[in-house]
Amino acid sequence: MHKPAIFLALVISSSSLSAFADSHEASGEATFDKACGRCHEATDFAGKAKDELATAAKGIISGEVKHPGRYSKFTEEDAERIAAFLASQE
Ligand code: HEC
Question: Which of 2, 21, 46, 65 could be 17's S-S partner, Cβ–Cβ 3.0 to 4.6 Å?
Answer without folding.
Answer: 21
